Amino acid sequence: MRSSLRWGMVLVAICLFVSFTMQVSAEPWWKRQTSSDSGNNGGSNGGGNSTNTAAIQMTTPAVTQGKALFKIGSKVTFGWKYQTTPIIKPQALNILSLASTKTWYTIAQNISASATSFEWNTADQKNPPLVMADYTLYITDERGKDAPATAGRLGIFNGLVFSMYLPQSYTPLDEYTCATCYSDGSFPFVPIAMTFAVTAITVISFSFFMI
Q: What is the pLDDT of residues 138-193, one digit of tens each?
């Protein structure tokens, strides 16, 4: 009898606890769990590729071939393709370069967004003029180089580094002067005299230590 009464009291206590829990919570715990799982799944599915920006890949010159070297005054061809297609198509493309001297150069501005190459005549670059340095190529959409990364839009490309050099002017052979050469049969007295002097000092010093 006492045992039955004890179990009855335990059962009543459990029922009261469950009833109190359901009243405190506006939503049962099993429904909360389901809602939470659904929200997480929806967030994962909604993220997808929409958080990624579209990218450009260089084809000319190929980045895998190492640093390209171009002569100032020559024509340079840049080629590229879309590695991933932007959801929001760009209205135009801008091509710039940043020298290691921290100077910006505008190569092309507002060219067709469907273009996949551009020929740059470096001889036309006057203000500011090109200098011998390393350059980083930038390709952006119409928003420019300072545009933030936005999902579905074209990201800024800056993955190509190239060098520019300026060749020295041609000097005819009859006008060339060699600073370290001897002409007209002149005898190189000074270098030979210095050689003999060093040899004599070495021999005298060695003889002194041998005595």
A: 999 999 999 998 999 999 999 999 999 998 776 677 767 776 665 555 555 566 66
Token pair of 187 as six digits: 């005898």
Q: Are residues 66 and 45 in the same domain?
A: no
What number is the average pLDDT over the span 68-84? 95
- At 26-35, the pLDDT tens digits run 454 444 444 4
Q: Are strands 75-82 and 68-71 parallel, antiparallel or unpaired?
A: unpaired
The whole-angstrom separation of Cα 67 and Cα 163 is 7
19: Cβ contacts below 8 Å, ≥ 6 apart = none
Q: Mean pLDDT for the chain?
A: 77
Instruction: Report the C-alpha gap between 148 and 130 in whole angstroms.
Output: 28
CATH number (domain holding residue 75): 2.60.40.10
> Contact 24/56 with Cβ under 8 angstroms?
no
Same domain (yes/no): 124, 40: no
Look at the alpha carbons of 112, 117, 123, 128 in this order and tell me if their dihedral is positive or negative: positive
Residues in the chain: 211
